[in-house]
C-alpha cells in the first residue's frame, strides 16, 4: 500500500504523530484513542484535548487492507505506531524501527484523557511528573516536545497567555513581547476558529527550528515555554538550537520507541480488533 496516498486533508502527518502520543499517555499504547464513543460511554476520541486529532481514516484504511491479507494478526495499536513513524518520515523526520506485537485495549474513557494528557497550560513541574509517571525521562520530555515542530494550535489555547494571564488583563511575561504582538494580530479576543503555526515558517517540515523558537521565548504554548524553567530541559533546548539539531532526529526516534512501550498489552491481554473504532 502506498501510504502517501492516504494522507489527505490538513496536516495529516502532524496528526498521525500526535495520535500516537495521545494514545500512549492514556492506558498505554493500546489503541484506545481510536475507539468511538457509544450510547453508554464517551470515548477518549471525544475528550476536549483530542477533538483536534485527525488521520483516523488512514488507520482505518491500513487496517482494512491488512485484514484482507492477514486477518486478526496486526493490531490497531501497532498500526498507530507504524503510521506515526511513516508520517514523520514523510516530512523529513527520522526513521526508527517500531517494535510490534501490541494488542488492543477494550476500554476508552473521555475523562481519563481530559485529566491525564499533558496540557498546553502545564508548568514544568507538572510536565515532569506526568512523563515520569509513564516511565519517560526529563530528556524524553524535552525531545518529544520537539514534535511541536509540526502542526498548528488554536487561538483559544493561547488566549489567556495573550490577554489575561494573571486575571488582570496582562500578557504572559515569559513570552517575547514582539512575538506576543504578532500573535495578537492573528488571535483577537474571543477568537475560537483561527489557528496559528506552532513552528512559524516550517510547521509542515520536521526540523530543529522548534528549539530555536523556544530559546527565543517564542514557544506557542505555556508548556513550550516551560522547557526554559528547568536546567536539564533548558540545556537540551539551547544545545539543539546552537548545533542545528545535531542529535534531535536520533533522540526523537529513541524517545518514540521508548514511548511505544508504555503500558503495552501482550499475550492474552486485550484483543486484535477487526475494526479500529469498535471492540470485537
From TrEMBL:
<dbReference type="InterPro" id="IPR000823">
    <property type="entry name" value="Peroxidase_pln"/>
</dbReference>
<comment type="similarity">
    <text>Belongs to the peroxidase family. Ascorbate peroxidase subfamily.</text>
</comment>
<dbReference type="InterPro" id="IPR019793">
    <property type="entry name" value="Peroxidases_heam-ligand_BS"/>
</dbReference>
<comment type="similarity">
    <text>Belongs to the peroxidase family. Classical plant (class III) peroxidase subfamily.</text>
</comment>
<feature type="binding site" description="axial binding residue">
    <location>
        <position position="148"/>
    </location>
    <ligand>
        <name>heme b</name>
    </ligand>
</feature>
<feature type="binding site">
    <location>
        <position position="207"/>
    </location>
    <ligand>
        <name>Ca(2+) 2</name>
    </ligand>
</feature>
<protein>
    <recommendedName>
        <fullName>Peroxidase</fullName>
        <ecNumber>1.11.1.7</ecNumber>
    </recommendedName>
</protein>
<keyword id="KW-0964">Secreted</keyword>
<feature type="binding site">
    <location>
        <position position="149"/>
    </location>
    <ligand>
        <name>Ca(2+) 2</name>
    </ligand>
</feature>
<feature type="binding site">
    <location>
        <position position="30"/>
    </location>
    <ligand>
        <name>Ca(2+) 1</name>
    </ligand>
</feature>
<dbReference type="InterPro" id="IPR002016">
    <property type="entry name" value="Haem_peroxidase"/>
</dbReference>
<dbReference type="GO" id="GO:0046872">
    <property type="term" value="F:metal ion binding"/>
</dbReference>
<keyword id="KW-0325">Glycoprotein</keyword>
<feature type="disulfide bond">
    <location>
        <begin position="155"/>
        <end position="187"/>
    </location>
</feature>
<keyword id="KW-0376">Hydrogen peroxide</keyword>
<keyword id="KW-0560">Oxidoreductase</keyword>
<feature type="disulfide bond">
    <location>
        <begin position="24"/>
        <end position="29"/>
    </location>
</feature>
<feature type="binding site">
    <location>
        <position position="118"/>
    </location>
    <ligand>
        <name>substrate</name>
    </ligand>
</feature>
<dbReference type="GO" id="GO:0005576">
    <property type="term" value="C:extracellular region"/>
</dbReference>
<feature type="binding site">
    <location>
        <position position="32"/>
    </location>
    <ligand>
        <name>Ca(2+) 1</name>
    </ligand>
</feature>
<keyword id="KW-0349">Heme</keyword>
<keyword id="KW-0479">Metal-binding</keyword>
<dbReference type="GO" id="GO:0006979">
    <property type="term" value="P:response to oxidative stress"/>
</dbReference>
<keyword id="KW-0408">Iron</keyword>
<feature type="binding site">
    <location>
        <position position="23"/>
    </location>
    <ligand>
        <name>Ca(2+) 1</name>
    </ligand>
</feature>
<dbReference type="GO" id="GO:0042744">
    <property type="term" value="P:hydrogen peroxide catabolic process"/>
</dbReference>
<dbReference type="GO" id="GO:0020037">
    <property type="term" value="F:heme binding"/>
</dbReference>
<keyword id="KW-0106">Calcium</keyword>
<feature type="disulfide bond">
    <location>
        <begin position="76"/>
        <end position="276"/>
    </location>
</feature>
<feature type="active site" description="Proton acceptor">
    <location>
        <position position="22"/>
    </location>
</feature>
<keyword id="KW-1015">Disulfide bond</keyword>
<dbReference type="InterPro" id="IPR033905">
    <property type="entry name" value="Secretory_peroxidase"/>
</dbReference>
<dbReference type="InterPro" id="IPR010255">
    <property type="entry name" value="Haem_peroxidase_sf"/>
</dbReference>
<keyword id="KW-0575">Peroxidase</keyword>
<feature type="binding site">
    <location>
        <position position="199"/>
    </location>
    <ligand>
        <name>Ca(2+) 2</name>
    </ligand>
</feature>
<feature type="domain" description="Plant heme peroxidase family profile">
    <location>
        <begin position="21"/>
        <end position="280"/>
    </location>
</feature>
<feature type="binding site">
    <location>
        <position position="44"/>
    </location>
    <ligand>
        <name>Ca(2+) 1</name>
    </ligand>
</feature>
<dbReference type="GO" id="GO:0140825">
    <property type="term" value="F:lactoperoxidase activity"/>
</dbReference>
<dbReference type="Pfam" id="PF00141">
    <property type="entry name" value="peroxidase"/>
</dbReference>
<comment type="function">
    <text>Removal of H(2)O(2), oxidation of toxic reductants, biosynthesis and degradation of lignin, suberization, auxin catabolism, response to environmental stresses such as wounding, pathogen attack and oxidative stress. These functions might be dependent on each isozyme/isoform in each plant tissue.</text>
</comment>
<feature type="binding site">
    <location>
        <position position="28"/>
    </location>
    <ligand>
        <name>Ca(2+) 1</name>
    </ligand>
</feature>
Amino acid at each position: 500500500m502506498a501510504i502517501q496516498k492516504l494522507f489527505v486533508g490538513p496536516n495529516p502527518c502532524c496528526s498521525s504523530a500526535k495520535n500516537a502520543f495521545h494514545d500512549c499517555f492514556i492506558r498505554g499504547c493500546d489503541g484506545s484513542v481510536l475507539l468511538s464513543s457509544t450510547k453508554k460511554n464517551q470515548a477518549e476520541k471525544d475528550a476536549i484535548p483530542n477533538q483536534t486529532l485527525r488521520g483516523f481514516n488512514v488507520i482505518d484504511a491500513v487496517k482494512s487492507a491488512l485484514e484482507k491479507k492477514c486477518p486478526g494478526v496486526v493490531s490497531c495499536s501497532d498500526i498507530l505506531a507504524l503510521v506515526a513513524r511513516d508520517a514523520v518520515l514523510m516530512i523529513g523526520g527520522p526513521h526508527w524501527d517500531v517494535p510490534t506485537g501490541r494488542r488492543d485495549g477494550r476500554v476508552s474513557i473521555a475523562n481519563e484523557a481530559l485529566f491525564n494528557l499533558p496540557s498546553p497550560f502545564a508548568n514544568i513541574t507538572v510536565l515532569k511528573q506526568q512523563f515520569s509517571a509513564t516511565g519517560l525521562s526529563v530528556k524524553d520530555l524535552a525531545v518529544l516536545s520537539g514534535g511541536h515542530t509540526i502542526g498548528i494550535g488554536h487561538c483559544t489555547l493561547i488566549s489567556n497567555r495573550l490577554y489575561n494571564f494573571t486575571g488582570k488583563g496582562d500578557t504572559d511575561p515569559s513570552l517575547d513581547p514582539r512575538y506576543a504582538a504578532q500573535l495578537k494580530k492573528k488571535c483577537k479576543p474571543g477568537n475560537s476558529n483561527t489557528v496559528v503555526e506552532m513552528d512559524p515558517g516550517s510547521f509542515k517540515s520536521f526540523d530543529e527550528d522548534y528549539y530555536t523558537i523556544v530559546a527565543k521565548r517564542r514557544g506557542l504554548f505555556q508548556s513550550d515555554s516551560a522547557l526554559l524553567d528547568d536546567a536539564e530541559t533548558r540545556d537540551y533546548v539551547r544545545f539543539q538550537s546552537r548545533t542545528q539539531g545535531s542529535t534531535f532526529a536520533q533522540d526523537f526516534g529513541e524517545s518514540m520507541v521508548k514511548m511505544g512501550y508504555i503500558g503495552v498489552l501482550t499475550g492474552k491481554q486485550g484483543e486484535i480488533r477487526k475494526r479500529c473504532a469498535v471492540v470485537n
